[in-house]
Structures are given as C-alpha cells and as structure tokens.
Amino acid sequence: MLNPINYVHFYESLLERGGEKYVYGNREDSSTKFEINLSVDFYKQNKIGLKYPRNAKYIIVVTHDVDNIYPSLGLIKYYMKRNPFKAFRYLLGRIRGNKRIFLNLKDITERESIYGFHPTFFLLVSDEDVLPLYKNYYRDEAVREEIYLVSKYAELGLHTGYYSFNNLQRIIEEKKRIEELIRGKIYGVRNHYLNFIIPRTWNLLSKAGFIYDTTLGFTKGFGYRNNMCYPYIPFDYEQNKWINIFELPLTVMDRALIKANIDPDMFFDKVKKFIESEAMKYGCFITLLWHNDLLYDPRFKKYSELFWRIIEYAYRNEGVILNGLEAINTWTRNISR
Hints:
alpha/beta; TIM Barrel; two-stranded parallel ribbon
C-alpha cells in the first residue's frame, strides 16, 4: 500500500506551490514537453512495482469527445470558397439536425477493436453551448440508436456542457440523460473546453457520482499538467480533505496540437522518444483525446493519421491500450497491492 502522505505530497504539492487555478475561459496555458519529474520522484520514493495487462510497460488511454455529429462551423467555413453549394447544404444540415456526417462512433469502435481495445466516448448532451447554431444531438433518434449500440462495447462518459461544468444540478441532469439512454451507469467525465476550477470542480463531480475525471491538460501543445503521469486522488487544501474522485491526466489533445501548430510527423517522433526513454521505464499513462469529428475531417487528415500511428506503435511496442475506466481500475489494483 502506498504511503498516503507521500501520495498527497507528490500529487498535489506542485499545484499548491504554484498557486495554480485552472479556470473556466483560460485559453493561454501551453506546454511542448513531456515533463514527469514529480512522477519520477513519486515512483522512486514509493518503489513502485507496476503490473499492467499483457505485461505492458506503459498504458495508452484512448478517449474521444463527441462535440459534433452535424457539420461543424469550421468545416462549413472551409467549404465556403471551395464548394459553396456543399457549404450551404452543410449549414442547413447543422440547423435542421439531419446531416449526420460525424455519426461515426460505431466506425471508430470497429476500427479500434482491431487493436484489441474499446475506447471511451464522452457525450455532450447539454441544451446550450457557447458556439452559435448549436444543435443538441441527444434528442436525435438515429444518434440515440448508435449511442446505445456502441455502449455495449465502448465506455461512455459525460462531456459536461460549457455552461454546466460549474453547476451541480446541471451535471447530475446531463449524467442522468446518458444513463437513461444506455440503461446503465457511467463513471467518467471530461469538461467541455477543459473548463475547470481547482478544487471546486473535483468536489462537484464527486458529488455527482463520478469515479474519475480526465479534464486537466493543456489547451495548447501537450504534456502533463502537474508533471504527474499517473492517475491521482485530489486533495482539497481549502477543506483539508481528500476528494472522492480520481484525476486521469490528459496528455495529448488533437486540437491542442493544431492550436500550437505542431507538425504531426515531428510530434510522432517526439512521443516515440518519450515512450522509449521514460514511459517504458516509469510505467506512464498517456491519455489521448481525439474528437470524433476530427478523425473524419478533411482539413485535419494528417492529425487523424497521427492518432492511428500512435495506436499502431503502442500496439506493437510493449504498450497496452485501455479506455478511461479500465485505466483507473488498473491503477487502483497497483496502489492497493
């Protein structure tokens, strides 16, 4: 069993010392390095002997935020000059909610099953969003049918609405919507736009009944937000108590790479180097977020290819690929030994 004093010290002291408050609306934070110094200290002090499925040396956690089922505003704008008629059809399809060009959860799940895993999909089911012409896909019967079908294989979680993440009742209502749709429980959550307030958001998500959150990451670039490459239990310094939820650090997000203008080929070499030099040595969790629409968006083909290259590499090079809940269960088994 890990020493709880070391557990809180190594996991949360960096945030406390830095006085960092990761808040709603903050879009300027960035990183272009895989920094895990805090993880290395934690690993060495606790003399961890990690045991992962299939005797893997590191874990890739695959998650997808489902922001769009209908044509995105960015894609409509992309076609305005290239194909105005197509842009107009896409615009009408977004407004009417009948152009389901990104209803691809089943396709993604089937392709990923080739590599022996099923992902986590975080579903956005709020009634309003910060983007104009927002259409809630939650009430679309064709979408509901696919979500229910996919729930038999993949893990489903909540992608809290832009205006919901700081409101307990809204969070509970959105969680209930998904659970009623799939006729089962959900355990994971990620906030839309990575909105977060430390430690308030953890407390709200815990009260709503979630086992884990995987929001804390960078909106520009990549890396580990508090130098921790393992899941952790947050500590509330304001109330001097543990919070009953795990944080699964978000490591790489597709749109954060794009925002930082990071070349996909260069990044693939960088993540390979990190895996070979540090992730294998310390048993790191590398949590990926690729949006369902971006995987099929012609504007971002190279970033879609990057995702599959990382998956292929991990599959063939001593990694194991898990979804969010599987990753948390794997970690709890290790820290309980």
